[in-house]
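Worked example 4.2. Below are the chains of a multi-component assembly; read each line carefully before continuing.
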Amino acid sequence: MSDIAIELRGIDKSFGLVHANKNINLTVRKGTIHGIIGENGAGKSTLMSILYGFYQADSGDIVVDGNKVTIKDPNAAIASGIGMVHQHFMLVENFTVLENVMLGAEDSQILNTSISKARVELKRLEKEYALEVNPDALIEELPVGLQQRVEILKALYRKADILILDEPTGVLTPPEADHLFRILGQLKDQGKTIIFITHKLREIMAITDEVSVMRRGEMVATRHTKETSVEELAELMVGRRVLLRVEKGAANPGEVKFAVENLTVRDGRGVTMVDNVSFNLRAGEIVGIAGVAGNGQSELLEAISGIRKAVGGTVLLNGKPIDVTGHVDPRELRDRGLAHVPEDRHHVGLVLKFEEAENGILGYHHDKRYLNGVFLNTKAIQADAEEKIKKYDIRPPNPRLKTANFSGGNQQKIVLAREMERGPDVLIIGQPTRGVDVGAIEFIHKRIIEMRDQGKAVLLVSVELDEIRALSDRIIVMFAGRVVGERDPDATEGELGLLMAGVEGRKDAAE
Amino acid sequence: MSNPYAKLPGWAEYGLIPLVNLVVAFLVAGLVVLLVGENPLEAAYHMINGAFGRGEYIGFTLYYATTFIFTGLSVAVAFHAGLFNIGSEGQAYIGGIGVALACLWLDKTMPWFVVFPLAIVGSAAFGALWAFLPGWLQAKRGSHVVITTIMFNFIASSLMVYLLTRVLKPLGSMAPQTRTFEAGGQLPKLDWLMSIFGLDLGNSPFNVSFLLAILAAFGVWVLIWRTKLGYEMRTMGHSPSSARYAGIGEARITVIVMMISGGLAGLMALNPIMGEQYRMQLDFVQGAGFVGIAVALMGRSHPAGIIPAAILFGMLYQGGAEIAFEMPAISRDMIVIIQGLVILFAGALENMFRPAIGRAFASIGRRSAVAAQTRGA
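Applying the procedure described above to all two chains together yields the following structure tokens:
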């Protein structure tokens, strides 16, 4: 037995002309937490997909526990003792915890015997790793943190010695994330090996023993976490020095530009997603809405930008009401000075099959500037796109290129350029840097602050608490569709975290 | 990384891949001919010769192609907005009413060039009307156009039986058809166009509606890629959620697009009614609406692809008839099999050879990149 759990030797993988993994070498020691960090598209997910058998490497070897193995599908990976906790959980919502855990690993054709065996085994695992969860609870009734625990139990049930966690904290509140880190620590102490994939530098520093950095399909460095710093890792990820803090002056708020009162929104199933929410935005300030994904932020954004009908409440834009409960035309809101950078640029903010220039007019295609009667003025559209490409440093600088071929950061810049360059009074931004590389984050943050300094009212919704804290002049926290608190940007992370977790009041914070 | 297919150069994407699919379709068709106990090469000869061997044959091929261009464009326009109009068949059928009314009204008193524009407007209007109802039902009630347009094909069929046996049939006639039109209801043939190439049209019904089809193809290109409406259609077709975000009214676009689609299908009626039979007969559409689906698929919903795809299907129709005539062991059903194979390989299995071709390109690309590097060093 060696003390090396997994060794990857010269892994190479191409998708057509895209070279996703270039000659990757990686050594993961047994009983350690090994972080893998890199920007979106750096090849982390591809590498893990190869390790878990979703893809086959074009060349290279995988050595598990000293033995060379071929992993042709996830079953082979499980047989080799590798388990995976996916970013998006692979759970059957209307099954119980127990049913989910044994799904695909049933002992016999007769369900009853399998269930009772699985129950015993699950109890043992729960006790051994302190992963309590009610085996008879339905998945859909569990909070995300517990659902993730079920995913981990699933892997342990299949006797995994090596656990791969892909961006596990994206859906968690800070307290839930802390809890996860404690669990991972225990698993490590029990001798399990953990591969932890993330793009958050802070998490790497907090829990890993070693960290490997990927950039553009290559493994650029491996460091002992103790011997490196956030700055060094960021530089390795991006390939140049980056500013991690945004510099901004004090806000100079003016009159109220946008007021939301008692807004209530229900989703398609009739579940109340936004519950009696009120807030306002003043000119020259950034208001951040913090909260764990799925607590009504998306529905709030959709309702105030005219995409989704609200069931109650009023919204005033520049002092005049918007008919949020009746018919709202997003076009009319744009004309009245509201710009919206949606959370989901792939399905909402952009049409990925369009050329860059075509996306540059989405929503503003009624503007006479871009038209000759009923015809598109292709020259004007092109010229407009070229101007924005220059100003926002969009790369590659080709307005005829299909939008899908731009990187996440550049796609986001396309949306931002379109919405910001109209000079709106109110700018609503959802997840400005989701899936955006570190280099572009800096640029995007600067632009948002510039908008504020020009006297625009900015509403910022983000699940990245760091981002909210860095940019906002006021922070509103949403939990379960309600506004549970408003804080200054210098509120501590712990305080905000408790609010995000729905734990109200200071006495809990003291614990 | 989300896209497992490599990006290919344009000529491979739009030329090589369809060609490979087509060749495979014909190879499999050849096997079927072998199975029947006939010589596939002989069948291929009759197919090609029957479609292009003589001026007259070419005339027939292009006559069929004209019909398929209209229905192909009809399906393609709806595709661009994300709507699957299976009702081109019925819309073309109802479009015939517009043609017949214009002809029956004016054919004795007016020359063809007066009747033709009226017939164009009439056919488009009736076709559009027939597509308006499913479009409106989709927009307002959420009834899926795939279902409603199929049902409207049956309604159209029953309606036409009624009209052609009770209303439009001349008294005393026993055939379910209108009277034969006089000179004003007959479109001139395109002899002059063929004679430029030194070909003789013979008896074939190749007529001016072909030029209208080409014009319509250009019009569709302008509509889709050069107008605001086309931009809104494409936005909705690619991403309905983006369309909602951009304030593009889904209901409005759905109704308008279905009407344009139906109008184009309606234009198809001009070709057989004014161009060949000079009367409206029962079942004159003969499945052209459904062939239009295949044509649109194969032509990638682009007019520049639809025209060659329509000519290909015109060839299959005309050349296929010739095979059935020359080789009695091969029945007309055989032609349906060949068409089916073309649709299968060019439409449904369109991506079957793409990974292989992509890999081939990738390895060539990598080799030349390596070669360039070694030269550089």
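Take a moment to check your reading of the output against the notes. Chain B has two domains: 1-38+331-356, 65-312. Chain B touches chain A through 29 residues (CB under 8 Å).
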